Amino acid sequence: MMLSFPNNDGLLPKRPDSGFTLIELMIALVLGLLVIAGVGSVFLANQNAYRTNNALGQVQESARTSFEFLARDIRSASANPCGTASVASVLKTGGDSMLYSTRDIEGWDDATTVTALPASGAGAPVAGGGGAIRLASARGSGLELDPVTGPRANIKLNGPTTSVNAGDILMLCDVNKATVFQVTNYNSANEVVVHNTGAETPGNQTKCLNHPVPQAPTGKCTSFSPSSYLAIPVNYIWYVGENDVGGRSLYRFGRGQQATSGTAEMVRGVQEMEIRYHELGSNSYVLASSVSDWELVDAARLELTVRSRGLGGASGAGTNNQPLERVFTTTVALRNQQ
C-alpha cells in the first residue's frame, strides 16, 4: 500500500485549471455565426418566397374577380326579362344623366374624358388608367304581378314586398314593349306600385306607361297584360380610378334601382384597363374611337394590368421587394346585341 505525503509546504499537489482557450472560443464563435447565418438565409429565402407567392396570389385573384364582374355585365348588355328591343321611358328630363343614355354598350379610350364620372377624389378616373365601358341592361326584380288585375293606372303585385320604395326606377315589359318609369309610392296595404306624375326627381311625364310616350291625358293605361314583368334597368360605367389610399382600383359608376348614380370600388390593385371591340363582320378588334356602329359590336377584348398590394391597399412587395405586376387578357362575347 502506497501512502501520499504532503509536499514541503504541507499542501497536496495542485491540479491544472480546466476551460477554453481564446482560440477555442473564437472557433466556437465563428461556427455559431456560420450556423446563424445559414438559418437566417433560409428564413429570409422562405420569407421572400412567401411574400412573392402571396403577391402573385393577390394579382391572380384580383384579375379573376375583375374579369368575373366585367364579363357578367358585358354578357348582359341589352338584355331584359322580356327579350324586347322596344324600350320607351316616361321619365322627365333633368335627372341623373345615366337615366337617359340610349346605347346599351359604349366605350371610351380614355376614362378621364367621360364627363359623367367624378372629377376628383376617390373614384375619379386617373390618367394612364386606360379606357372605360358603359353597359346597360335590365334585370329581373323578382316581383310577380297580380294575375287578374295586372298593370293599369297602377301596378298590382301578387304579394307584399320590401324591395320597392318611392323614387325607385323600374321597368314594365312584355314580349312586345317595355317602359321605364319612376315609383311615386308603394302602397303596402294594397300591394300596389304607384307611378303618378309626382314631385320626385326626375318624375314621370305621365302615369300611363303605354307606347307611344308621352300619352295623352285621356289615353287608356291598359296595353300591358297581367303576364307582364317588372324589371330593374341598370346602367354602369366600368373604369380604373384612384382609391382612398392613393392607389388604383377597378370602379363601377352608375345606377341600378336608385334614381341617382353612385361610385363603387370593385377590385383593388387594377392599374390599367384597355378595351378593344369587335364588330359583326369584322376580322379585327379595334379601339373605341374606331368603332363605326356600337349596335354591331358583338365582343370585347379586355386587357388588365394588375399590381400586388400591401396593408391598407398600398403596393405590396413581390420579388426584390418590388410590387408584382402582371397583364391579363380575356375576350367576352355579347349575347344580346341585335
UniProtKB/TrEMBL annotation:
Cite the entry's keywords alphabetically: Membrane, Transmembrane, Transmembrane helix
Q: Does the keyword Transmembrane helix apply?
A: yes
Q: Which InterPro entries does the record match to this protein?
A: N_methyl_site, Pilin-like, PilW
**Pfam families named in the record:** N_methyl, PilW
Q: Where are the transmembrane segments?
A: 20-45
The name on file for this protein is Prepilin-type N-terminal cleavage/methylation domain-containing protein
Q: What organism is the protein native to?
A: Marinobacter xestospongiae
Task: Give the organism's phylogenetic lineage.
Answer: Bacteria, Pseudomonadati, Pseudomonadota, Gammaproteobacteria, Pseudomonadales
